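Hi X.,

You mentioned you wanted examples for the new student's onboarding notes, showing what a folding record looks like when two proteins sit in one file. Here is a clean example. The first protein comes first, with its sequence line followed by its structure tokens.
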Amino acid sequence: MKRISILTLALMLLLNCTAFAANWAWIDSNDKTGFFFDTDTIKYSSYHSVPSNKIISIKNTICFWEKMVYTSEAANHVADQTGEEKWRNVAYVVSYVSLDKEGKYLSVSDSTFYNQNGDVIDQSANTSTARIIPGTMGDSIYQVITNYAKNNDFLVEWNTTHI
């Protein structure tokens, strides 16, 4: 119980250091990491239709910015696993995520890693795609994001055509 309280306090403090434009909503957390998404930029995948000169939504793919907040224990674990000391200072990472509702895949790209002062530690433009496994954090992300899009379709659609 004490670990959860410490994680909650750490998450609250770190959220105060976020970008001004972001509106981070909680997805899920465990004793090492917390996951959030930006409600201001969540949108459907889209393409520009040349004949109609309109942006057309593809509602089976939802795109959003995700923030993963690390405890110091999680950061140390990453540093130990990679052998790179810089990861001991990671406080959070912000990544662009595409969620395929039908195929149940998450694709993560354009990740930026920050320390507790909000300084960039590292950046990666690599994309990794993984199937969503039932009962995992990926499944929690899938459930929260798809429910949010369903319950806020007008806002997500507006973001798609205006952002």
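Then the second protein repeats the pattern, sequence line and then tokens:
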Amino acid sequence: MNLSGGEGPGAGQSESAGWCDVVPTHVRNSRVLGVEADPLRGTETILLVEDEAFVREVAREVLKAAGYRVLTAQSAAEASCVYDRCSGGIDLLLSDIVLPGEDGRSLANRLSSQNPDLQVLMVTGYAMQPGQSRPGRKDEEYLPKPFSSAILLRKVRQVLDGRKRD
């Protein structure tokens, strides 16, 4: 991740954390130039569930910069409350699989039973061996950690667009 200061002493210097870029260049450029044709941009509502604060905040900022409305939660219980407050107006559940309390898969199954149109993208830090099947729904999409902002945006767009094709 590259974070750059904007004004004052040390402006333009960057700190490297190695996780991912905060905002990809194509998203920054599209915002500055007013170009809305970026195929990775969107206006859908995403419920982001991640117990690691750093990962949650970086992902939220990347998604918001790309035009998405992002609601966040750090646990399945909190996500359920957010979902209920939105009366199901969530287009995508983007959830870590491993969460404190109820896991992300159980949350996804419960919310999907309430709203069959809800798209689900599960995030996992556990490596899968080639040919190894993942437990869960057959239509479940995965995003392995660590991921770059470009991969996050591409996968989110892919999952959301898959809904529109059906």
